[in-house]
Fold:
Amino acid sequence: MNANASLGAAPVSQSERIVIIDSVRGIALLGILLMNIPYFALPDPAFYTLTLMHEMGTINQQAWYIINEVFDGTQRAIFSMLFGTGIMLFISRLEKRTTGMVPAEYFIRRQLWLVVFGLFNGFVLLWTGDILFAYGIVGIIVFAFRNLKPRQLLIAAGICLVLGTLREEVDLYRDKNTIKKGESIAALDTTRIKLTDSQKEELDEMSDDKKKWDSVSMQKDMETNLRLIRGNYADAYKYVNVETTKIEMIEVYTSIWDILMFMLIGVAFFKMGIITGEAPTKIYWWLFIAGLGSGLFLTNNWLQYQVQYRFNWFMYEKNVPFDYYNISRTLRSLGLFGLLMLLYKSGWFKWLFALTRPVGQMAFTNYLMQSILCGLYFYGIGFGMFGKLQRYEIYYVVGVVWVIEIIWSHIWLRYFRFGPLEWLWRSLTYWKRQPLKR
Structure:
């Protein structure tokens, strides 16, 4: 790298920060824990079914419904939008201060380090729901679209939504076909008809899928998960290694349209001034009313299907005609974003945005801190509370983590320019130790 070309490269200064972006990022970061906490606290598969721990008809079902109806996937979506905005801020500043390939080189290095941190979060801190790995990869794709006009970016985001939804439907109807074939073969009179090898395989595939979701199999899986996570680090790693590998290495491929879509929306909204609060108020009202109204309606139907089939995904796949989770989540996410911006523009909630701004400035540190705090509290290597709290009680833990992160973020940033991991990330990105103290 040419030394003169990179002379202007440096992390963002405090005066260059955009307050509303930090504040909304902080809210989204705290909100993410609402959806992550069941996976920290409850055993697999009880974290997504209410039947195993007899939660149907109790306060736990009410807690499940409220969280999934309103917040499911939305905070991560808003966080992804802000990550897309962060890409634009990072690149645009470097392109103004440096020349040649310098901005691209720093950006790629930044993203690759994020991949490393994601692997650390997943395989060392034992968090199976890590998102940093995917952000590191998908962010590089967004880089190629950064110069598109807002309209083109929104069209690209719409294409991502269509492709992601099509993938959902292909998966759903592939499973439906497996069930249909298997059940038709099971109905044959095998005393008169000898099954072919192909028919046997199709029958076995359907039977295995059906058995996976029966109460006996799920109870066995839950007991195994409880034993491993409540055990020592090696026991927990035995479970986490399989799940994290599946998520980091396989589900990135299946969720790429989702993450890419919201990052592209974030870039478009930044260019349009929507994400910085500069757009006309009516735009935020449209996002809020149209997005949240239609999103909540679709999500309610989706949740009712789950309750109707008692969280048996074999029956769900067999009977549900259309899987519109991606669409409902997108609408709800845009609606909640519109609501946050309306609160900001009203001027009545300055205290809220001032409270969450330091959390957003230290979002990287606080994200990994959630893995550490929840791991220590729930896993066997810490206090071993895994599976010991009811669903509604785990949200008390969320409240405690929120208080800790808000207080410590305010205190830390009184004395330091960045959060500790933000400082490390910047130092690794620029390959130079950055000043930390104010």
User: Anything to note?
Assistant: Residues 233-272 form the longest helix (40 residues). The CA atoms of residues 244 and 364 lie 19 Å apart. The chain is about 75% helix and 0% strand. Residues 14-430 form one domain.
